[in-house]
């Protein structure tokens, strides 16, 4: 049985503490499909935590990645590293440090778990109540983080799964808030979009 771990921030968390450990988001949707299609083949763990930045994920790497010994892990993080830079508390993570810590995280996980397969997902956002007022700063900042995430994936030879264009294209079909309720947190349709990209990437591992 393969152990699959989801890591990230609130987009991954998706209320997992209230709903059977997987939450209502894309981790639950991924698990539902794979558990149905492949009975007994997979075990799923969601360790996303709302509000997390790369520094938080790095700090809990030992207990909530390495010690869990997953066979496969996906990571979706980066929005809070930018978002918190434009809030009053200003505890965001500048891109050079973000990229350095992300690389350190991947390198240390791979050293401890040499057979692990890792998928790196691109942070994204759309216009909504949490983003529109600061869109001209927020969007370029997230794109900068996304570029750093892509470099991390390339440096470490890992699959990079782009999401910005996927959500931008989806927003041409229906309004932004159909896909991402407040500009940051996906709706059911938005989580389904991520799930489909997750499954495609997983099938190519």
Can you walk through the features of this model?
The protein has 205 residues and is α/β, with parallel strands linked by helices. The chain is built from 10 helices and 5 strands. The longest helix has 21 residues, at 135-155. It has a 5-stranded parallel β-sheet. Helices cover 47% and strands 12% of the residues. Strand 4 (117-121), helix 7 and strand 5 (160-161) form a beta-alpha-beta unit. It has helices at residues 10-13, 26-37, 54-59, 61-64, 79-83, 95-112, 135-155, 164-170, 176-179, 188-203; strands at 2-8, 42-46, 72-76, 117-121, 160-161. Helix 6 runs parallel beside helix 7 (135-155). The chain is globular and about 45 Å long. The model has no long low-confidence stretch (mean pLDDT 94). The protein has one domain (2-203): SGNH hydrolase (Rossmann fold), CATH 3.40.50.1110.
Give the topology.
Layout: E1 2-8, H1 10-13, H2 26-37, E2 42-46, H3 54-59, H4 61-64, E3 72-76, H5 79-83, H6 95-112, E4 117-121, H7 135-155, E5 160-161, H8 164-170, H9 176-179, H10 188-203
Parallel strand pairs: 1-2, 1-3, 3-4, 4-5
Helix pairs in contact: 2-10, 6-7
Q: If you consult CATH, what is the topology?
A: Rossmann fold
CATH H-level superfamily? SGNH hydrolase
Question: Which structural class matches the secondary elements?
Answer: alpha/beta
What fraction of residues sit in β-strands? 5-15%
What does the average pLDDT come to?
A: 94
Fraction of residues in H or I helices: 40-55%
Poorly predicted ranges: none
By CATH, the architecture is named 3-Layer(aba) Sandwich
Order of helices and strands: EHHEHHEHHEHEHHH
* Major β-sheet strand ordering: 2-1-3-4-5
Major sheet: size, sense and barrel closure?
A: 5 strands, parallel
Shape: globular
- End-to-end separation: 16 Å
């Amino acid at each position: 049985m393969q152990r699959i771990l989801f890591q990230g921030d609130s987009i991954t968390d998706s209320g997992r503490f209230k709903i059977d450990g997987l939450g209502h988001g894309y981790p639950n949707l991924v698990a539902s499909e794979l558990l149905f299609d492949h009975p007994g083949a997979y075990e799923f763990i969601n360790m996303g935590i709302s509000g997390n930045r790369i520094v938080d994920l790095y700090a809990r790497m030992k207990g909530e990645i390495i010690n869990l010994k997953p066979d496969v892990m996906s990571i979706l993080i980066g929005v809070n590293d930018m978002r918190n830079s434009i809030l009053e508390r200003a505890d965001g993570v500048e891109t050079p440090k973000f990229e350095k810590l992300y690389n350190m995280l991947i390198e240390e996980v791979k050293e401890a778990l040499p057979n692990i397969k890792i998928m790196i997902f691109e942070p994204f956002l759309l216009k909504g109540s949490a983003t529109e007022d600061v869109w001209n700063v927020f969007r370029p900042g997230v794109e900068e983080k996304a570029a750093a995430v892509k470099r991390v994936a390339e440096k470490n030879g890992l699959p990079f799964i782009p999401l910005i264009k996927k959500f931008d294209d989806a927003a041409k079909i229906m309004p932004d808030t159909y896909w991402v309720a407040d500009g940051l947190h996906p709706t059911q349709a938005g989580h389904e979009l991520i799930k489909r990209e997750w499954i495609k990437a997983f099938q190519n591992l």
